[in-house]
TrEMBL record:
Its cofactor is FAD. It comes from Exophiala mesophila (Black yeast-like fungus). PANTHER family: AMINE OXIDASE, AMINE OXIDASE [FLAVIN-CONTAINING] B. Belongs to the flavin monoamine oxidase family. One of its GO terms (molecular function) is monoamine oxidase activity. Substrate binds at F383. This is Amine oxidase. Pfam families: Amino_oxidase. The keyword Oxidoreductase applies. Residues 48-481 form the Amine oxidase domain. It is an enzyme of class 1 (oxidoreductase). FAD binds at E67, A68.
Length: 493
């Protein structure tokens, strides 16, 4: 089946919208107790929503899953084209990410892991630097040394590799005073503090790492956002790369999300509606009512809301959201980057990375070989600064094609991407915060309001913005709702 989402440019057929996706659910509606009150409604079928729905349904609670898209996965979905899986959103996982690893173990999918960054046998891996002070190509070892020096200097604010700021990375406010102090400064301000200790290449690789991680310029990003990834990865540059951009699934993320969805269905307690947009959420009389864009209403004892941060204010809540939730959603997370895929002729770029730091709009911050297609060509994945390729579809793809050709000097066979920043259901990619945002808003975003519980990777304690963070949030929300349902018999059907 094809989803309505995503854009694809093929050298032979030109530009089309919509991509193949096994996560499209047919039939789009299954309601076992229509017109009755559910134990819980779960709003959104990304990983947070899928896990919450599964955990509630398998505990015997009657659940209605409402999803505005025609597919599962939210900001994490796979499109298989000519036998090759392209991850349109979230991709990489690691055994050091506890929640995703539990899911892979649960469904016996550990063998699906493959090394995204593995080059071709016998081919020297190389990295090209595209910096304002010049372009050159270095060995993988030299590049790793440059990253280690730069990232360690950047994160070592205390002589202990940042451990006094984030001593327990999955508990971000464990050292609240230290964290709050460093959360107020931008990545640019921290860069200015240490840049004189770095070579021009090390400065360039650090700035590129910041942009690639966040999709934003260093002055827009909180320093603690990079420090958080660093701490979660064991305060080490080599581990940092392994945790965030090395291991992916052969079957694609949709393979895992389908397992979770089918597990929920097998319980017999799950109903669902896809292509159903929630517009209003009312709490009164010990129940929650969701009104959709077509005027239909659905009632439950509790609601798990997984709406992304940047779109949270697009739904009417009654009673209204707390002041800090409204302010946080209005401010939003800063990551509006473009993740794009290219199939390029031949295998030369499979063992290659390109790293750039250039303030020119449309310039890629990074691209690397991510696999070989069945046609024997290289799959490249790239990340660009906020604002890149955001013209109309035709112009945006023309700009992307030019950027790839400039970056790689390769023949482009196909391009594809999901324009997350323009997507009204996301308005951004994985969550990254501006200075002071976490300190001011994260705990308020996590807080429940009455019978509505909020679950999103965008405000997870640990790997927020990652698949692991989404699963963390889905588990917690389901546990809260299930506990309340069991505690108050009258809340149940």
């Amino acid at each position: 089946m094809d989803t309505k989402e995503g854009c694809h440019f093929d050298k032979e057929t030109g530009l089309t919208e919509g991509l193949p996706c096994e996560g499209v659910i047919v039939p789009p509606t299954l309601e076992s107790i229509s017109g009755q009150r559910y134990d819980a409604i779960v709003l959104g079928a990304g990983y947070a929503g899928l896990v919450a729905a599964r955990d509630l349904a398998t505990r015997g609670h009657k659940v209605l899953l409402l999803e505005a898209r025609d597919r599962i996965g939210g900001r994490t979905w796979t499109s298989v084209i000519e036998g090759y899986p392209y991850e349109m959103g979230g991709t990489w996982v690691h055994w050091g990410q506890p929640h995703i690893w539990t899911e892979l173990s649960k469904y016996d999918m550990v063998d699906q892991l493959e090394d995204s960054a593995k080059g071709l046998p016998g081919v020297q891996h190389s990295t090209s630097y595209y910096f304002e002070h010049g372009k050159r190509t270095v060995s993988l070892a030299e590049d790793a040394d440059n990253l280690k020096t730069a990232l360690t200097a950047f994160c070592d604010v205390d002589g202990e590799l940042g451990k006094t700021v984030l001593p327990i990375p999955h508990k971000p406010f464990a050292a609240a005073t230290e964290f709050t102090k460093w959360d107020q400064i931008s990545a640019a301000e921290r860069f200015d503090q240490i840049k004189d200790r770095l070579t021009p290449d090390q400065q360039g690789i650090l700035l590129s790492t910041i942009v690639t991680a966040s999709g934003a310029s260093a002055d827009q990003l909180a320093f603690t956002e990079i420090l958080r990834w660093w701490a979660l990865s064991g305060y080490d540059s080599e581990a940092y790369m392994a945790y965030v951009i090395k291991w992916k699934l052969k079957c694609g993320q949709t393979g895992l999300s389908l397992r979770i969805f089918r597990d929920a269905l097998a319980s017999g307690s799950l109903s669902y509606r896809f292509s159903t947009l929630a517009k209003r959420i009312d709490q009164s009389g010990g129940q929650v009512t969701v009104t959709t864009s077509n005027g239909s209403q659905h009632v439950a004892s509790y609601l798990v809301c997984t709406i992304p941060l940047n779109t949270l204010n697009d739904v009417v809540f009654n009673p209204p959201l707390s002041r800090n939730k409204v302010l946080a959603a209005a401010k939003g997370q800063v990551n509006l980057c473009v993740k794009a895929h290219a199939e390029v002729a031949g295998t030369d770029q499979r063992s290659w990375w390109g790293i750039a730091y250039n303030k020119r709009p449309g310039m890629m911050a990074g691209a690397f070989g991510d696999g070989l297609t069945p046609a024997g060509n290289t799959h490249l994945v790239s990340f660009s600064l906020n604002g890149a390729f955001q013209n109309t579809a035709d112009r945006g793809f023309a700009e992307m094609k030019t950027a790839y050709e400039e970056f790689t000097s390769a023949e482009i066979k196909r391009l594809l991407y999901h324009p997350w920043a323009q997507d009204p259901l996301s308005k951004g990619t994985w969550a990254m915060y501006g200075p002071g945002f976490a300190t001011r808003f994260k705990r308020d975003l996590q807080a429940s309001q009455g019978r509505v519980h909020f679950a999103s990777a965008d405000w997870a304690d640990g790997w927020h913005g990652f698949i692991d963070g989404a699963i963390e949030q889905g588990i917690r929300a389901a546990t809260k709702v299930s506990t309340e349902l069991q505690k108050v018999p009258s809340a149940r059907l």
